[in-house]
């Protein structure tokens, strides 16, 4: 039951954040979500629905319903979510936990290390701390 709920949450995130992106871009949103969840299946839904983390969850007050089953983008999102949860797809974001649409210029972007640009999204990870010798 938990795994099905996690797949649904992840699929909803892929669908709403990246359905117009190439497959690699959809995988990127899915793996970024898993990175934020630190690979924990039980953390996927809390990560997706955390306040102000993903635009689609912040724009409406009513909870979203799943798209129609015949929607090809929804079918693709569910397929990718299952593979990501099962660990069958690699992280194409290089460990990213933050992203924004290309062209947006959020103030926080300078705080993080840009890892990759995929489709219309720019991905970032926390900067590695460099230990001083001594």
TrEMBL record:
It comes from the Bacteria. GO terms for molecular function: hydrolase activity. Pfam families: Hydrolase_2 (PF07486). Keywords: Hydrolase. Residues 20-124 form the Cell wall hydrolase SleB domain. InterPro entries: Cell_wall_hydrolase_SleB, SleB_dom1. This is Cell Wall Hydrolase. It comes from Candidatus Pantoea floridensis. The lineage of its organism: Bacteria, Pseudomonadati, Pseudomonadota, Gammaproteobacteria, Enterobacterales.
